[in-house]
């Protein structure tokens, strides 16, 4: 696998390291691959099962105790006993029932359940997982301009998904937005959450038990309005909150902070600009640069295709870019995904000093398919037939599965001169789509104003180098955040060294 090793050496290159390498940074990373969320669903079932059995155990006791209280008729027996039967009843109860109840109260029949709930602790998502899941939602929201209230109701791009967020989830999102200093968005999420909480007033104990009492909402409200400079509004709400929950010192502290900020006239926070990886409209609707290009069967790319032509859609002549339809069968896709599933690890980049670093602009997990099975040989042949390039000098197939709002920031597949050393550059890239993605997940080429939405079994092919063999900057591309679905793709990078005779000159381009 020398190819794989050479790739690892290259700066800013996508690499996938084996999970035993750097276990510390490559923990579960649940939010980074939809496939790996399967495990979480199992853990949640276990938790609910534990709680259900715990409830049953408690309920049995409650029933027994209630029945006891009912049969003793203790209200009536409070008076001094005046008959021997009553006296006997009391003496017997206090002699023997007392011991039984004492024993029962000391017993913890749910101890196995406690053990079980402790046992699953190492598998629970971490703060980092929440942050990543939150980042996914945040990215989806602003890439596709989704209104907060709709999103909270589970309406994404006008499609109603039957899952909504609750007050606590909205508060969590608002808190993370505050951390990022995105106060206006934070306010929207907080207000939606506050409304939901107030509609559910009767269950305040439940919210407190789960660590999100209503007073927390008011505290965050004050913090956000403090930052936005609407401090008198913050103050009146805080005063009301303090009246309601006088015991909460954090509210008092918030009020003191507020007063100080009013006195010193602290500047409100600057409205934050949208930042990283701004996506264009081609993430939401399919963009095609020219209507003149058309679909055709390519029978000339290789001898094979003269016998079995591929359905080919020409997307761009310069740089050359085509979309093949129905090139990988469902059966092969299932096999590929099964091959990849065991080995999915987070995409990382190599830093200058050679260490691995997670890149927030690459929220995906992947693996290389290095074995040389019949399936891989068949797929390699397919890549060769599609491109008419010699794929002996190519990286192994790489399979990626994306997570919540998973995306891949804008990048080139070719290497800059400075990065090249003695490596062979990536002349072409073939991306095979291994799943349909119901919403989002387009591959976009911002400079070409072109986007391709994943369709299971299709493949996108383009040349990264121009006719002189230099990197073509117009091939800058990225994967838009996936909104709904599990986005699976497989990539083949084909290198130029072996292509001297197959693509000797393309001077006409
Ligand atoms: C819960 O109780 C059921 C039925 O008694 C049992 O099969 C199951 O294993 C229990 N689950 C846990 C997590 O203890
Ligand atoms: C939501 O539920 C309704 C009614 O059960 C159903 O018609 C609709 O297809 C569901 N929406 C999604 C996105 O599953
Ligand atoms: C068919 O594909 C080959 C290789 O990709 C390309 O050189 C050729 O121009 C294509 N034919 C047509 C008609 O587009
Ligand atoms: C490239 O290959 C040449 C000759 O084999 C060697 O002298 C040179 O050090 C190599 N450069 C790099 C960057 O590996
Ligand atoms: C391509 O991009 C690189 C880096 O972004 C830049 O240095 C180079 O000048 C660009 N080339 C062209 C032809 O625009």
Automatic annotation (TrEMBL):
GO MF term set: iron ion binding; L-ascorbic acid binding; procollagen-proline 4-dioxygenase activity
Domain (Fe2OG dioxygenase) ranges: 393-496
Cross-referenced Gene3D superfamilies: 6.10.140.1460, q2cbj1_9rhob like domain (2.60.120.620), Tetratricopeptide repeat domain (1.25.40.10)
GO terms for cellular component: endoplasmic reticulum lumen
Cofactor: L-ascorbate
Signal sequence extent: 1-19
SMART domains cross-referenced by the UniProt entry: P4Hc
Keywords: Dioxygenase, Endoplasmic reticulum, Glycoprotein, Iron, Metal-binding, Oxidoreductase, Signal, Vitamin C
Subcellular localization(s) per the UniProt record: Endoplasmic reticulum lumen
InterPro entries: Oxoglu/Fe-dep_dioxygenase_dom, P4H_N, P4HA-like, Pro_4_hyd_alph, Pro_4_hyd_alph_FE2OG_OXY, TPR-like_helical_dom_sf
Record-listed E.C. numbers: 1.14.11.2
Family in the record: Belongs to the P4HA family.
Function: Catalyzes the post-translational formation of 4-hydroxyproline in -Xaa-Pro-Gly- sequences in collagens and other proteins.
Name by which UniProt lists this protein: procollagen-proline 4-dioxygenase
């Amino acid at each position: 696998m020398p190819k794989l090793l050479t790739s690892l050496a290259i700066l800013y290159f996508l690499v996938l390291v084996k999970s035993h390498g750097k276990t510390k940074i490559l923990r579960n990373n649940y939010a980074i691959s939809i496939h790996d969320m399967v495990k979480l669903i199992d853990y949640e079932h276990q938790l609910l099962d534990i709680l259900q059995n715990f409830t049953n155990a408690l309920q049995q006791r409650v029933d027994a105790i209630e029945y006891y209280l009912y049969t003793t008729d203790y209200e009536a027996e409070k008076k001094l006993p005046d008959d021997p039967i009553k006296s006997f009843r009391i003496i017997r109860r206090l002699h023997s029932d007392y011991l039984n109840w004492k024993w029962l109260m000391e017993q913890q029949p749910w101890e196995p359940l406690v053990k079980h709930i402790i046992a699953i602790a190492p598998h629970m998502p971490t703060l980092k997982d929440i942050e990543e899941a939150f980042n996914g939602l945040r990215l989806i929201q602003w890439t596709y301009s989704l209104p907060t209230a709709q999103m909270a109701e589970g309406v994404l791009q006008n499609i109603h998904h039957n899952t909504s967020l609750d007050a606590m989830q909205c508060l969590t999102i608002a808190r993370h937005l505050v951390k990022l200093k995105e106060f206006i968005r934070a306010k929207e999420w907080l207000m939606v959450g506050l409304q939901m909480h107030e509609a559910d007033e009767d269950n305040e104990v439940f919210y407190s038990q789960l660590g999100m009492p209503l007073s927390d909402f008011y505290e965050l409200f004050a913090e956000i309005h403090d930052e936005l400079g609407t401090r008198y509004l913050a103050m009146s709400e805080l005063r009301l909150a303090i009246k309601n929950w006088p015991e909460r010192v954090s509210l008092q502290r918030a009020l003191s902070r507020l007063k100080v900020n009013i006195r010193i006239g602290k500047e409100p926070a600057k409205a934050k600009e949208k930042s990283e990886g701004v996506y264009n409209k081609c993430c939401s609707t399919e963009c095609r640069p020219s209507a003149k290009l058309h679909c055709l069967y390519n029978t000339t790319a290789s001898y094979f295709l003269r016998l079995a032509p591929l359905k080919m859609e020409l997307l761009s002549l310069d740089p050359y870019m085509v979309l093949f339809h129905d090139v990988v069968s469902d059966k092969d896709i299932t096999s590929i995904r099964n091959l990849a599933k065991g080995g999915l690890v987070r995409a990382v980049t190599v830093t200058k000093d050679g260490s691995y670093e997670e890149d927030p602009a690459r929220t995906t997990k992947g693996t290389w398919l290095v074995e040389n099975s019949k399936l891989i040989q068949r797929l390699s042949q397919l890549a060769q037939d599609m491109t008419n390039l010699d794929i002996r000098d190519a990286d192994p197939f790489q399979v990626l599965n994306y997570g919540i709002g998973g995306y891949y920031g804008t990048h080139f597949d070719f290497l800059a001169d400075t990065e090249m050393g003695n490596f062979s550059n990536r002349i072409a890239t073939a991306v095979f789509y291994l799943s349909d993605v119901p919403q989002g997940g387009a591959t976009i080429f911002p400079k070409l104003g072109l986007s391709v939405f994943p369709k299971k079994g299709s493949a996108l092919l383009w040349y990264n180098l121009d006719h002189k063999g230099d990197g073509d900057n117009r091939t800058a591309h990225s994967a838009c955040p996936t909104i709904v679905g599990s986005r699976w793709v497989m990539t083949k990078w084909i290198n130029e060294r072996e292509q001297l005779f197959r693509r000797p000159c393309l001077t006409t381009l």
